[in-house]
Structures are given as structure tokens and as C-alpha cells.
């Protein structure tokens, strides 16, 4: 699928609806505070696209769950994440339909109720995202076991910065003008010499 499997596709689709739904609620608040009806139009269309993006994220997440190797701890987190995601989608889907049919006829009380519901949906959205982050960063969900094993091996080997302090720590210490060469046969260090005509100096 264009280089994506379901877990990667789910990760790619998550950010767009989160940003759009947050923006929609923000413009609703600005419209109320600044008395700018134009901001409500921005909120309306942003909500529509955000709700569609949220549906795509949830569908891909349900598919990703079937393609992730996991244990009991991850399974419990995934179940909670799924329930929260469905709740979030339900809230914003209701809001989208509500505004499609009532946008031009809402009174101030109805708009206040919509805004309160939007803020509640935004709170659930943040909790949903938190659980998704815990799956990835605390439990390495969606990372194949072979990749994780290789990464753990590389971490145990350590990381070396080329040309930095780590390299300097591995360089032989030099005395005088240059490091003393070692005898290839015995491994003993040979005293260094100077070309003829070199002024005398202390070694």
C-alpha cells in the first residue's frame, strides 16, 4: 500500500484530524469571544474535514490492531485507546451533523451547548492521543520484534560520534612530536628518532 502497512498508515492519519478538530474548536471560541461570525464559517468547514479525517484514522486503527504483535499489557491499552477513539469520533460526528442541519438557525443558547460539547470532545481527543502515545513510546507497539531486538543490540553496543570525544578516547596518546611506533614482531614500543640536523630538545 504505497510502502505503508496498516500501523504506519494509522500513524500517518492521526495528526491531521487532531489538528483540524483542535482548530475547529479554537475558531468557535474566537467567534464567541471576538463576535466574528466569519470565524464560525472557518470552524464549520474545519470540523467537516476533521470529522472525515477522524473516521479514516479510526478505521485504519481498527485494521492496525489486527496486524500488531502484542502482549496482555498492550492489549489492554489498545482496548482503552479504541474505546476513546470511537467516543471521540462519535462526539465530533454528532457535532458535524448538528451543524450541517442547524448552522444557520442556531440561537445563542444552542451555540453555547455546541461549544460545550466541542470542548468535551476535545478533552476526550487529548486522552485518546495520550493512550496512543503510551502504546508507541512505553510499549513499542507496532515495532516488529526483529527490529526491536536489533535496536536493543545496537544500543548495548553504544553510539560513537565520529570526530568527537568518543573518537579521541580511542586514539593512542602521543608523547613529544608523535606517538611512538610499536615493534611489529615483539609489540614493544620503540624510542622515537629525529632526522639528521634536528636541533636537540628534551623528549
Please provide a written account of the structure.
The structure is a single chain. The chain is an all-alpha fold and 203 residues long. The protein has a domain at 6-141. The protein contains six helices and no strands. The protein has helices spanning 6-34, 37-65, 72-102, 108-137, 145-157, 165-170. Helix 2 (37-65) packs antiparallel against helix 3. The longest helix is centred in the middle third of the chain and has 31 residues, at 72-102. The N and C termini lie far apart (68 Å).
Give average pLDDT, whole number. Answer: 81
What are the low-pLDDT stretches, counting only 5+ consecutive residues below 50?
none
Structural class, from secondary structure content?
mainly alpha
Helix-residue proportion: 55-70%
Strand composition percent: under 5%
Radius of gyration: 31 Å
SSE succession: HHHHHH
Q: Mind describing the biggest β-sheet?
A: none
Report the strand count. 0
Number of helices: 6
Shape, per Cα inertia axes: elongated
Distance between the termini: 68 Å
Amino acid at each position: 500500500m504505497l510502502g505503508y502497512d496498516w500501523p504506519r498508515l494509522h500513524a500517518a492519519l492521526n495528526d491531521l484530524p487532531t489538528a483540524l478538530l483542535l482548530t475547529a474548536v479554537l475558531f468557535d471560541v474566537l467567534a464567541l469571544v471576538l463576535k466574528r461570525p466569519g470565524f464560525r464559517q472557518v470552524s464549520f468547514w474545519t470540523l467537516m474535514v476533521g470529522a472525515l479525517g477522524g473516521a479514516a484514522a479510526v478505521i485504519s486503527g481498527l485494521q492496525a490492531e489486527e496486524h500488531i504483535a502484542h502482549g496482555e499489557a498492550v492489549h489492554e491499552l489498545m482496548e482503552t485507546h479504541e474505546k476513546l477513539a470511537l467516543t471521540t469520533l462519535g462526539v465530533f460526528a454528532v457535532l458535524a451533523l448538528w451543524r450541517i442541519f442547524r448552522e444557520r438557525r442556531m440561537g445563542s443558547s444552542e451555540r453555547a451547548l455546541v461549544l460545550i460539547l466541542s470542548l468535551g470532545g476535545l478533552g476526550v481527543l487529548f486522552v485518546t492521543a495520550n493512550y496512543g502515545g503510551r502504546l508507541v513510546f512505553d510499549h513499542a507497539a507496532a515495532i516488529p520484534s526483529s527490529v526491536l531486538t536489533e535496536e536493543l543490540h545496537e544500543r548495548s553496543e553504544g553510539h560513537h560520534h565520529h570526530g568527537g570525544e568518543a573518537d579521541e578516547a580511542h586514539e593512542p596518546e602521543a608523547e613529544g612530536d608523535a606517538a611512538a611506533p610499536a615493534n611489529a614482531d615483539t609489540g614493544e614500543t620503540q624510542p622515537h628518532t629525529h632526522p639528521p640536523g634536528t636541533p636537540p630538545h628534551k623528549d
